[in-house]
Design brief:
6 helices; alpha+beta; four-stranded mixed beta sheet; 328 residues; four-stranded antiparallel beta sheet
C-alpha cells in the first residue's frame, strides 16, 4: 500500500518535465531557421556587392557651332575670289575661272563670284570674236592685194570694203580701195573717150555708091548676143550677182537643201542656170558671190562681144568658198 501512493505521486510530477523538453526543441528549430535565413541573405548581399558596376556615361562631344563653319566658308571663298581677280587682271582667264569655281563651291550663293564669272566668260567670248575677226581681216587683205596686182579693180574694191566693214581703221585696205577707185575711174574715162571718137567717125557723111539697077538685099546686122549663165556651188547658201558694165543683169539668192524628214533637212550643193542678152562690142562682166560669214568674192571678165554670137559664163564655188569664173 505504501508503494502505491508513492507510485501515483511520481506519475504527475514526471509529465511536466517531458513538456519542457519539447518546448526547448521547438525553440532550437526556430533559432536554426532564423540563422539559416540570415546566412542566405548575407550571401546574396556579398554576391551583389562583388558584381561590376556600369560606368556612368561621359558627356557627349559638342558639334562645332554653325557660325564657325560659315565663317570658314566665307574665308575660303574670299581667298579664292582674290586669286580669281588677280588671275583675271593678269589675263589668265582659265586660271581665273578655276579660282571662281573654288569660291562658288565654298559659298554657292556668292553674288561676287557670279558677277566675276560673267565678266571672265564675256572676256573669253570677246577674245574669240577678236581672233575670228583678225583672221577674216588677214584673208580679206590678201585677196585685195592679189586683185590689185592683177589690176582687177572691182575685185580689189569689194575685198577692201569687206575688210573695212570688219576694221574701219585698216589703213592698207583704205589705200587699196582708193587706188582701185582712181584706176577704175581713169579706165572708164578712157573708154568713154574712145567711144566718143568712134561715134564721131561714124557720124561723118559718107558718099553713097551709085545705085545698082538690081539692089541686093542686105541682111540685118545683129546688135546683141546670147549669154547662158551656169552657176555651180558646193556652198549651200549665198547670193549670186552679175553686172554687164553698169547694168545688173542677174541677182539670185540661193539656198540648196534636201528634205530628210519631217521638219528636217540637210545642206547640199546646187546649180543656177539663166539666159541673158549682151550688147555687141566690148563688155565688162563683174561676178559677185556672197557667202554667209565670208568676204564677198568678186571676179571681173572683159570680152569683145560679137553680134549674133552665143556665149557661156561658167561660175563655180567650191566647198572652201573659192570662186572661179570663165566666159567662153
Amino acid at each position: 500500500a505504501g508503494s502505491g501512493p508513492a507510485g501515483r505521486a511520481a506519475g504527475p510530477v514526471a509529465a511536466p518535465k517531458g513538456r519542457r523538453g519539447g518546448h526547448q526543441g521547438l525553440w532550437w528549430a526556430i533559432g536554426g531557421a532564423a540563422l539559416l535565413l540570415l546566412g542566405v541573405g548575407t550571401f546574396f548581399a556579398i554576391s551583389a556587392s562583388r558584381e561590376p558596376s556600369t560606368p556612368a556615361p561621359g558627356p557627349a562631344p559638342r558639334p562645332a557651332p554653325a557660325s564657325s563653319i560659315e565663317q570658314q566658308s566665307r574665308i575660303v571663298a574670299a581667298t579664292a575670289l582674290a586669286e580669281a581677280r588677280s588671275r583675271y587682271a593678269e589675263g589668265d582667264l582659265e586660271a581665273a575661272l578655276a579660282a571662281v569655281a573654288q569660291a562658288e563651291l565654298a559659298e554657292p550663293e556668292s553674288l561676287d563670284a557670279k558677277v566675276l564669272r560673267e565678266a571672265i566668260e564675256k572676256s573669253r567670248r570677246d577674245l574669240a570674236a577678236d581672233a575670228e575677226r583678225e583672221v577674216q581681216v588677214t584673208e580679206g587683205l590678201a585677196a585685195a592685194r592679189a586683185a590689185s596686182a592683177r589690176k582687177a579693180w572691182d575685185e580689189t574694191i569689194a575685198a577692201g570694203r569687206g575688210v573695212l566693214a570688219l576694221d574701219p581703221q585698216q589703213e592698207e585696205a583704205r589705200r587699196l580701195v582708193s587706188e582701185a577707185q582712181r584706176e577704175l575711174r581713169r579706165e572708164r574715162e578712157q573708154r568713154a573717150a574712145e567711144e566718143a571718137a568712134r561715134q564721131a567717125a561714124a557720124a561723118r557723111p559718107v558718099t553713097p555708091p551709085p545705085a545698082s539697077p538690081h539692089p541686093v538685099p542686105v541682111a540685118p546686122v545683129a546688135t546683141d548676143a546670147g549669154l547662158r549663165i551656169a552657176f555651180v556651188s558646193d556652198q549651200s547658201e549665198g547670193v549670186l550677182t552679175l553686172y554687164a558694165g553698169e547694168r545688173q543683169i542677174l541677182r539670185e539668192p540661193f539656198k540648196f537643201v534636201r528634205k530628210t524628214g519631217f521638219l528636217r533637212s540637210e545642206k547640199i550643193s546646187g546649180t543656177i542656170e539663166a539666159e541673158r542678152r549682151l550688147p555687141a562690142g566690148p563688155v565688162t562682166l563683174r561676178v559677185y558671190v556672197s557667202l554667209p560669214g565670208k568676204p564677198t568674192k568678186s571676179i571681173v571678165l572683159e570680152q569683145e562681144i560679137t553680134g549674133g554670137g552665143k556665149y557661156q559664163l561658167d561660175v563655180r564655188t567650191d566647198a572652201a568658198g573659192r570662186t572661179t569664173a570663165e566666159l567662153r
